[in-house]
Amino acid sequence: MRLIASLTSPYARKVRIVLAEKKLEYKLELDDPWSAQPQVASHNPLGKVPCLLLDGGDALFDSRVIVEYVDTLSPLGRLIPERGRERAEVRTWEALADGVVDAAVAARLEAVWPGRTDAERCQAWIDRHIDKVQAGVAAMARDLGEQAWCCGLHLSLADIAVGCALSYLDFRFPDLAWRTQYPNLVRLVDKLGQRPSFVQTQPPTA
């Protein structure tokens, strides 16, 4: 398998962590989806990373689709329950975490995208999406409570998605005070940060 990804994409990081946790081999192909001619556009008409290229040339895109497929490739450490309420809970956690990332990315692009001048940027748009980020993080903290993991007794995709989302906030929005507000989330993220899959996929600081 070949994974087209960016080292700074939290969606791609989620996929890379799942691949690492499942101990599956793949080739990482770096791409910048914001470049003039991104490689990924040849495989994903939306021009977004990550994109997983399978043997035979088929392409899977959208991180949620990719991680669900990858989780079926090996019985080792299933990250998504097969059925029922537990499955729905894990996927709902993932949707919440991805929604936080969606809002954070929207706010960041409005603030830094070079296609707009400073006069063209909309602070109200940025504030609206930061409000969504903060509401999402508050919901994460409330639902996690004092549990060791988001769902059940073991690591699942829910924890991976939450870890990627909160780490992205640390990376791109260090001024947000989620770490001082939610010690239970800090414990979870710091625990995840000790796993090799998280260490190996840490985005570059520069």
TrEMBL record:
Keywords: Transferase. GO terms for molecular function: glutathione transferase activity; maleylacetoacetate isomerase activity. It comes from the Bacteria. GO terms for biological process: glutathione metabolic process; L-phenylalanine catabolic process. The keyword Isomerase does not apply. Residues 1-78 form the GST N-terminal domain. Residues 83-206 form the GST C-terminal domain. It holds the Pfam family GST_N_2. Coiled coil: none annotated. Signal peptide: none annotated. This is Glutathione S-transferase domain. It comes from Leptothrix cholodnii (strain ATCC 51168 / LMG 8142 / SP-6).
